[in-house]
Each structure stands twice: as structure tokens, then as C-alpha cells.
Specification:
192 residues; 5-stranded mixed sheet; 4 helices; rod-shaped
């Protein structure tokens, strides 16, 4: 009688050993799990690198615009004429009596002036004090009528400090401007 019980016991043991076999993980499952949890470097999207660069560039622009003062423009003397010049020989700035020269001094320091002399000894116009002068923003301008034959010297001056008053002699006034360390731009016109 032991034979049928042994067979039945063996069958039960075999059935018990197969119990839950459908829930058994497939072979090699440990390697797949370890590969999935391993720390591997991940590739970041391109914008994660670009975003800090944009922030740094914006900070640099803000620093330049807000903190650093704008660099002042160099003093400029612009002359415009009503007529084309008369050119004889080596005299490119030869003009005619009666012409009007529009002179504008811009840029440089906070204070600007235009002084116009005839034949070095006669101060014709001193801007900005003369009533015919125009001051606007960072420029001073005047219209000069070339009334007589001779040499006209137009001197633009600029400084952050107050500008001196001209005395009337070109050489003395230009020397005083150099001693005061003013920025100057001269221009000479020959009127025939």
C-alpha cells in the first residue's frame, strides 16, 4: 500500500514545486534590473547649456548699460556752406565774400563754445554768449556771414569745466585754451 501513496505523494510534491511557476521572473532578470538602476551619464537637452549663457550675457549687458557711464563722443566741428568752394591752387577752403557758413560744435565735455576770428585779431562771434548762437542738447551752432576779404579762423572748444571768455586775439585765446587743457578743433577759411 505504500506504492499508491508514494505515487500520490510524488505527484503532490511535483505539483507543489510547480506552484507559482507562472509568477517566476524570466531568466537573466537580475542583469536587466542592475543595468536599469546603474548610474550612467545622461545627455542634457541643448537649452540647459544655453540658458546659463543667456543669463550671463544679459547680466553683462545690464552692467555695461547701467553701471558704466557712456563714453563721451569726441569734440567735432562740422561746417556746412551755402555754395561750393572756389578752388585755386592749394587753397581747398577758399570761400567768397557774402557766403554763409553753418558751424556746429558737438560732443566733447559738458560745455562747448565756438569762437570765430577774422584776420586773427578781430573776434567776430563768441558762442554761446552771442544772441545769434543756438544751443541744443550737446551742441552749439551759429551761422557766420563771411562779410569781408581775409582769413577766418573758427575754433570749437569743449570742457567739463567752465570755459574762459575769449579776449579777442586768436593766438592769445588759443594759447589760453591750451593752458586750461580744453579740447579744441580749429578750422581756417580763406575769403576772397
Amino acid at each position: 500500500m505504500t506504492a499508491p501513496v508514494d505515487r500520490a505523494g510524488a505527484r503532490i510534491e511535483a505539483a507543489l514545486s510547480q506552484l507559482g511557476a507562472e509568477h517566476e521572473p524570466p531568466p537573466g532578470w537580475e542583469n536587466r534590473v542592475l543595468a536599469a538602476v546603474r548610474d550612467e551619464p545622461r545627455h542634457r537637452p541643448w537649452w540647459q547649456f544655453a540658458a546659463p549663457a543667456v543669463v550671463v550675457a544679459a547680466a553683462a549687458v545690464l552692467l555695461v548699460v547701467v553701471v558704466m557711464p557712456p563714453r563721451p563722443r569726441e569734440l567735432a566741428l562740422d561746417l556746412e556752406f551755402d555754395r561750393q568752394p572756389v578752388t585755386r591752387g592749394d587753397q581747398p577752403d577758399e570761400r567768397r565774400v557774402g557766403e554763409i557758413v553753418h558751424a556746429t560744435a558737438s560732443g566733447g565735455g559738458r560745455n562747448r563754445a565756438i569762437w570765430v576770428y577774422r584776420n586773427e585779431l578781430a573776434l567776430v562771434i563768441a558762442c554761446p554768449r552771442d544772441p545769434i548762437c543756438r544751443v541744443s542738447g550737446n551742441a552749439v551752432s551759429v551761422d557766420v556771414v563771411l562779410g569781408t576779404v581775409g582769413e577766418y579762423k573758427i575754433l570749437a572748444l569743449s570742457s567739463d569745466a567752465a570755459l574762459p571768455e575769449p579776449r579777442g586775439n586768436y593766438d592769445a585765446d588759443a594759447a589760453a585754451a591750451m593752458r586750461a587743457d580744453l579740447t579744441t578743433k580749429p578750422h581756417v577759411l580763406h575769403v576772397r
